[in-house]
Amino acid sequence: MNSSVRESGFLLRVLVTLVGLTAAGMAEEPATAPVAAGGSAAFTLPALPYAQDALAPDISAKTMSLHYGKHHQAYIDNLNKLVAGTPWATGQPLEKVVVESAGQADKSAVFNNAAQAWNHAFYWKCMKPGGGGLPSGRLMDLMGKSFGSFDEFKKAFLTAGVAQFGSGWVWLVQEGDTVKIVKTSNADTPLAHGQTALLTCDVWEHAYYLDYQNRRKDFVQAFLDHLANWDFAASQLK
Ligand SMILES: [Fe+2]
């Protein structure tokens, strides 16, 4: 193969990738940046707790492939580039980077990528094939006290997910002996606000657009009815 043919092939792959990312709502995301040459990556993409097609048809394998393999990977890659040569690149827990960079204007890029890396790793654990149903035990007791009933919780979570303007997340969090629903914009995360995250649904368009287009409500409903992993949420209680 001569060089011009190889270059044409490369340009075609770049074009296909760009078209695919735009179709998936990726225009709202930063581009992947390579780790500094010669340096080992401080952070790595955690394994998914299930196969990429395991949540279909509620979340398709195509969405999972882009969301996990491209978006989540991009946050990891960008974070590694941003922290290269800093104390954050020396085996620090990701949570520490999120908390320490939060609220610092000159560290906003580190925070955005670290928080998104953490949020996504948490989000994958918040779902499972055959999920949904009801929580049990202490979590159910706390939810009953806070929301009156599980149905009322679902209505409030759905409303919050739909009401989040633009990109963001809807969460069930614990504060002391109560649980509540909060929304965060863009990369913001309960970790940065002293709250304990129990469950989250990603309501960035990239999380659902290929499968639901503009029907975010249907996506959040499917998350609650078929995907939510209440055993994981209960395991996060303090
Ligand atoms: Fe996402």
Notable characteristics:
single chain; 238 residues; minor pseudopilin epsh fold; globular; binds fe (ii) ion
Please characterize this protein's 3D structure.
The protein has 238 residues and is mainly α. The chain has a domain at 137-235: Iron/manganese superoxide dismutase, C-terminal domain (minor pseudopilin epsh fold), CATH 3.55.40.20. The chain has helices at 3-23, 61-83, 94-101, 108-125, 137-147, 150-163, 209-212, 216-227, 230-235; strands spanning 168-175, 178-185, 196-202. Helix 6 packs antiparallel against helix 8. Residues 1-38 have low confidence and may be disordered.
Could you write a compact summary of the structure shown?
With 238 residues, this protein is mainly α.
What is the name of the CATH class of one domain? Answer: Alpha Beta
Could you say what the CATH architecture of one domain is?
A: 3-Layer(bab) Sandwich
Residue ranges: pLDDT <50 for 5 or more in a row?
Answer: 1-38
Helix-strand pattern: HHHHHHEEEHHH
The number of helices is 9
Task: Calculate the mean pLDDT score and round it.
Answer: 87
- CATH topology term of one domain: minor pseudopilin epsh fold
Bound molecule types: fe (ii) ion
Distance between the termini: 60 Å
Task: Give the helix/strand layout.
Elements: H1 3-23, H2 61-83, H3 94-101, H4 108-125, H5 137-147, H6 150-163, E1 168-175, E2 178-185, E3 196-202, H7 209-212, H8 216-227, H9 230-235
Antiparallel strand pairs: 1-2, 1-3
Bound molecules: fe (ii) ion (FE2).
